[in-house]
């Protein structure tokens, strides 16, 4: 495993990079971390937290970081992908609170040659599961051409 910065593996720009670190990855899975701070995107000053529904985006960005790291390992460009949807998103907390470090784990369950994939995802804090879902993503070979065709 090569250690990449989160900016190197995500096809996003600030302020929409919601993750802090890519901790580990292999051919089928990855773990990223999110530090909940007052500077976190979507941080609510009143509740001192980020709403737990933002966890879906943490999961999607962790999948993107996984794909980006594998692309860089193959000396390829990091490509954009698309969050198609989630199935069975369950949250066991209404919010992620100030000071928490969340571990976002993603594991590939299925991948088609077309670029459609399904990942099993969890968000944990101190070994406690805070949210889980199956996330469907799509990464076409040529995202720019794909977007042109959709117009």
What do you see in this structure?
The structure is a single chain. The chain is an alpha+beta fold and 151 residues long. 21% of the residues lie in helices and 41% in strands. The protein is built from three helices and nine strands; from the N terminus they run H-E-E-E-E-H-E-E-E-E-E-H. The strands form two sheets. Strands 1-2-7-8-9-5 form a six-stranded antiparallel beta sheet, covered by helices on one side. Strand 8 and strand 9 form a beta hairpin. The model has no long low-confidence stretch (mean pLDDT 94).
**In one word, what is the shape?**
globular
Mean pLDDT: 94
- Order of strands in the sheet with the most strands? 1-2-7-8-9-5
Give the SSE string.
HEEEEHEEEEEH
Number of helices: 3
Query: How many strand units?
Result: 9
Keywords, please?
3 helices, three-stranded antiparallel beta sheet, alpha+beta
Summarize the model shown.
The chain has 151 residues and is of the alpha+beta class. It is built from 3 helices and 9 strands.
Secondary structure: elements and pairs:
Elements (H helix, E strand, L loop, with lengths): L5 H4 L11 E5 L3 E7 L7 E2 L4 E3 L3 H19 L8 E10 L3 E3 L3 E11 L4 E10 L2 E11 L4 H8 L1
């Amino acid at each position: 495993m090569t250690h990449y910065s989160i900016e190197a593996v995500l096809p996003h720009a600030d302020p929409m990079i919601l993750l802090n670190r890519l901790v580990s990855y292999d051919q089928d899975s990855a773990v990223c971390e999110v530090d909940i701070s007052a500077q976190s995107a979507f941080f609510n000053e009143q509740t001192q937290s980020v709403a737990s529904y933002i966890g879906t985006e943490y999961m999607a960005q962790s999948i993107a970081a996984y794909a980006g790291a594998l692309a860089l390992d193959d000396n390829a460009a990091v490509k954009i992908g698309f969050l198609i949807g989630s199935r069975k998103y369950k949250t066991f907390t209404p919010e992620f609170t100030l000071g928490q470090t969340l571990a976002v784990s993603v594991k590939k369950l299925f991948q088609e040659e077309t670029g459609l994939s399904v990942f099993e995802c969890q968000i944990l804090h101190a070994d406690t599961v805070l949210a889980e879902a199956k996330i469907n993503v799509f990464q076409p070979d040529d995202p720019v051409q794909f977007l042109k065709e959709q117009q």
